[in-house]
Amino acid sequence: MATLLDALLLYDELYVLDAQLPHDADTLPLRQVLLDRRILRPVGTRALSASVADELTGFLRDAETFQESWSPRGLASGEDVANSVRLLLAHPDESGGPTNPRGRGIASVMRGEVEGDLSAGRIWSSRPELQSDPLRTLGWTMLTNIGYFHSGAIYGGVSHLRTFVYWRVSAHLRIPFLPSLHRLPAYHLITDHVRRTVQDRVYEVVADSFRTTVAEVYEDENPAPLYLPPALALFLNHLRAHGDIAMAVDDLRHQHRKLRRVLAELQQSLEPGSTLGDTRAARHRLNAALDALRGDLDPHDQAAAGTVDQLIDIVPGVVNAAANPLNVGGYAEALVARPAEWIRSWWLRRPVRSAIRLSSRLDNLSRYHRLLGEATGQHVDPGRFEQLRQEYGAALTLYGGDSRLPAATPSPSPSPTADPPEQEAPPRFA
User: Fold this and answer.
1) Which of 27, 37, 60, 92 lies at a C-alpha separation of 20 to 30 Å from 134?
2) Cβ contacts of residue 96 below 8 Å, gap of 6+?
3) Residue 381 DSSP one-character state
């Protein structure tokens, strides 16, 4: 909820995948308000079904060989899993789907509402590999858990599969993915691995393509600090005072419309014909707006809530789908072989995203239990918030990183004296 409300401050629109809805969907007032105001928009996946499934086929074929000592009979077939995804994306309702029993089982779990434990089971036995080769480790874990089919492990495997599907769909749509707290640590591990592997390899060719220095490219990659009010507290306060969810949403968004505008302007300034100077000027305007917002906040809310950066991700189509298009090392090599004009266009048009640090949000949740009860009539034991922090801490111990949405953290910039060795519409996704 807190993450959703932060997104309402930052983005004009939030996209969700078109999917089978729960039976009580029409009775959820916040969902209906967001749909009525055209803030929440379902996005169809039929056109992406083949390309996303082809990526998964090559990736999972490679993941099948990750732990060769494991009996192949303990693994789900990567091809079967990818085909299930292909049919589900083409038919998000129940009008189509796999015909074999295993495929129907995967489809049923993916259409369901149950999430598995992403930090349990075999993944603990692969912790060193999780840090050195996270994509293949997660792919292999996914296949082993789904391979146990008749046990509860399939729910954890399908939860990992959902993370991969959401990640790749957002990459094909060129909009940032805003994951739930449940899948955030694994998603952060994936994107951080991609960024660390790719950025130092491509910075030199990016600098060459713009006829500038690597130091300048590093400088332009520094994330801008993002200052946000406590959206959940503001929303609940308004709801407690007026009892109207629609008014609470409207008030929250109206107060921070300028922030959404400057974020959209930054994305719109990143056109193929732009220069690094153009983007630098747009970033300066964004920084000025963020500083002004910080001055309007209460003193205890003036710590940076996160950062704004441009995403370094695996662009669809760079690596042939017949190979493994999610092989990060191969992707970096394919990038640097692209023509300079393509490099410039890719670098400028990377989606702008807001990366919210969640540690402070989690710390604040326990302070909201009384406000939550007064505003909604729903009372939550404060001990549940402590349990959430502990469980999230365990996930961070496993996956590494801190409690935030992933953001660029460039390596230290080379000395300026050293020889030179990176929306069409506003960013939006939920």
Assistant:
1) 92
2) 87, 90
3) -
